[in-house]
Amino acid sequence: MFAPRTESAPPENSEGVGTVVLVPTRFVWPYGGRRVFLTGSFTRWTEHLPMSPVEGCPTVFQAICSLTPGFHQYKFYVDGEWRHDERQPYVTGNYGMVNTILLAGDPIPAILSPETPGSRSHMDVDNYAFQRVVTLSDGTLQEAVPRISEADIEISRHRISVFLSSHTAYELLPESGKVIALDVNLPVKQAFHILYEQGIPVAPLWDSYKGQFVGVLSAFDFILILRELGNHGSNLTEEELETHTILAWKEGKSQFNRQFDDHARQFQRRLIHAGPFDSLKDAALKFLQNGVSTVPIIHSSSQDGSFPQLLHLASLSGILKCICRHFRHCSSSLPILQQPISAIPLGTWVPKIGESNGRPLAMLRPNASLSSALSLLVQAQVSSIPIVDDNDSLLDIYSRSDITALAKDRVYAQVHLDEMSIHQALQLGQDAASPYGFLNGQRCQMCLPSDSLQKVMERLANPGVRRLVIVEAGSKRVEGIISLGDIFRFLLC
User: Fold this and answer.
1) Contact (CB, 8 A) for 72 and 100
2) Contact (Cβ atoms closer than 8 angstroms) between residue 369 and residue 418
3) How far apart, in whole angstroms, are the C-alpha atoms of residue 127 and residue 475?
4) Confidence band (pLDDT; 50, 70, 90) for 429?
């Protein structure tokens, strides 16, 4: 995020009487386009300033202008048409509908009048954070971080809780689709390939002898398998994978339990599932209380639970999508939605200088070994690790599900975990669209500390997006990470 600073304009006269304080201010057009320009009263409405797409967010354009404190008007020129942002404060002026901005030049933070059309309650906080400025005792300018009251948090939590309690998991079922389940007698090798080829991180396990679903197999299990076989001092071979069925893997964990304790016990516990008529709140709490990323929706027409039907694999993103869809047109009923995420106790953040509290954010360099990445995923109990350069700027992210890329061309039969780098491992599962194969497609989703909670929630509600890496604008220096679990722990716990 850009920190406002003090700049001095040239003296107003030869005696140097008076200087003008300029405030770097970020303007955002978040609605897409091919060519976007910014103009306003600060350019005398004659100069069109080009806006640049935000890296990783091609539909969001931004421009930084140094403005004097006071009232300004501005407008956007998008693909040959004049536009204004209806979610920002706006008025009718000499140039039609124009957006407005008020920068403070006194010690009091700039607050827009509640009578202004499209005022704060409808603002995109991503831009609003750059409009709140205070003057410190030394004369410099610093952003004033807005605060949210406990009352607003509780009101929002209550309304979301009521909504989730009154809707059922049945609403998560798609109109059409397929659900893949694995037989417990399948070899681990074959299960490994199925997850990779189908592009899925988890699959329910079916025991035909018992006639019921008994658990799930996930990418995390393959991480544990690779680590266990690696501890035997031998390279992983196809023969070893062929001799391990999923059932044998489940039943042969006594020695592994002593080594990995809680993580292995997670694999052996009973299946966590939900019924189609369970409330969305109960389903969400199952995710949080059991630390799982997927909950099968299973229905049985008989009272004894026989002949179960696997209807869907539910995720927190599906539940979040229901919340976003319901409150999208009545966001004013949730006071927290327009708050910037930096003002909310949410996610895991890189500790500030002098801070000793909180859990440190796990990060790795691209030349670190795959073995170190897998160890960190297990030991830190996280689902992903940001991959950064020497300046802690984001390059990519390594997730648990990336381990299935080792199934490509039977790489697992030759790989040494200590010899393969994270960079090499990531390249197995993606086409090198950039010189280093980083930041491909939708893999690495980012957000800014100034982004509103609503914007973050809508991004996380997209299928396949499980976390957003919080970065500093421009440098992409990692400042934190927000996961789906973080959102629901904040909303429900």
Assistant:
1) yes
2) yes
3) 18
4) low
| pTM confidence score | 0.65
Residues 140 and 21 in one domain: yes
Considering the domain architecture, whether residues 274 and 181 belong to the same structural domain is answered as yes
Percent of the chain at pLDDT > 90 equals 22
- Going along 169-258, which residue ranges are E strands? 182-183, 202-207, 212-218
- β-strands 57-67, 70-78 pairing: unpaired
DSSP string, 272-303: P-B-TTSBHHHHHHHHHHHT-S-EEEEE-SST
Question: Do the domain assignments include residue 43?
Answer: yes
Cα separation, 485 vs 336, in Å, equals 17
Q: Is the pLDDT of residue 60 over 90?
A: no
Same domain for 100 and 211, yes or no, is no
Token code pair at residue 19: 């200087």
Among 320, 352, 381, identify where a domain stops: 320
Instruction: Give residue 170's pLDDT.
Output: 92
Structural contact between residues 322 and 312, judged by C-beta atoms closer than 8 angstroms = no
Per DSSP, what are the bridge partners of residue 245? Answer: 187
Task: Please give the Cα distance from 220 to 17 (Å, whole number).
Answer: 67
Which one of 80-84, 142-146, 187-191, 321-325 scores highest in mean pLDDT? 321-325
| Domain boundaries, position 434 | 337-492
Q: Report d(CA 160, CA 401) in Å as an integer.
A: 30
Buried-exposed string 439-457: b where 16+ CB fall within 10 A, e elsewhere: bbeebbbbbbbbbbbbbbb
CA distance 346 to 480: 10
Cα-trace Rg, the chain = 26
Q: Is 332 helix (H, G, I), strand (E, B) or coil?
A: helix
Contact 285, 314 (CB under 8 A): no
Task: Give the H or E element holding residue 67.
Answer: strand 57-67
